[in-house]
């Protein structure tokens, strides 16, 4: 019986753990997901006829990459949907684990600077009429 797939959170925790066996098992699982191809599970011809491989014909790696198989009966026959695990998530986790991605560091983030802008100071002058002056 195959084990239940890891969640992203569980995979991250395993990769950060000190248990080398657990870490290596997660790396192997992520490598299987990252290298998966839909043609491991199904094929199609130039006419668009899709054939799904029988489960006993699938390699263990191909079986691990399948997230869900949904079969819906219609009046035209069975409608089969195959959903694969997210390949990009597996690639990101592997890249981060192997140091290929830059760490999330506050040093690498842009700084936010507050700028206060004030307008020019204005001076008001009072102009007096020349008749008010004393000529004694």
User: Strands of the largest sheet, in order across it?
Assistant: 1-2
Q: Give the overall average pLDDT.
A: 79
Shape: elongated
Distance between the termini: 118 Å
Oligomer: single chain
DSSP helix fraction: 25-40%
Rg calculated over all Cα atoms: 34 Å
Tally of strands: 4
How much of the sequence is in beta strands? 15-25%
Query: Unreliable stretches, pLDDT < 50, 5 or more residues?
Result: none
Main structural class: alpha+beta
Give the H and E element order. HHEEHEEH
Number of helices: 4
Largest sheet: 2 strands, antiparallel
Features:
136 residues; 17% strand; 4 strands; single chain; alpha+beta; two-stranded antiparallel ribbon
Tell me what you see in this structure.
The structure is a single chain. The chain is 30% helix and 17% strand. By secondary structure, the protein is of the alpha+beta class. It has a domain at 8-102. Strands 1-2 form a two-stranded antiparallel ribbon. A two-stranded antiparallel sheet has the order 3-4. Strand 1 and strand 2 (50-52) form a beta hairpin. Helix 2 (20-34) crosses helix 4 (87-97). The relative contact order is 0.13. The model has no long low-confidence stretch (mean pLDDT 79).
């Amino acid at each position: 019986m195959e084990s239940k797939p890891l969640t992203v959170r569980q995979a991250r925790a395993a990769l950060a753990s000190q248990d080398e066996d657990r870490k290596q098992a997660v790396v192997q699982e992520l490598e299987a997901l990252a290298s998966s191809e839909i043609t491991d599970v199904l094929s199609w011809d130039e006419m668009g006829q899709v054939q799904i491989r029988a489960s006993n014909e699938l390699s263990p790696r191909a079986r691990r990459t399948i997230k869900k198989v949904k079969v819906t009966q219609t009046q035209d026959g069975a409608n089969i949907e195959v959903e694969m695990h997210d390949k990009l998530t597996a690639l990101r986790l592997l890249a981060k684990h192997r140091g290929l991605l830059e760490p999330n560091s506050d040093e690498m983030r842009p700084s936010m600077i507050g700028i206060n802008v004030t307008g020019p100071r204005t001076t008001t002058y009072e102009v007096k009429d020349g008749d008010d002056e004393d000529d004694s």
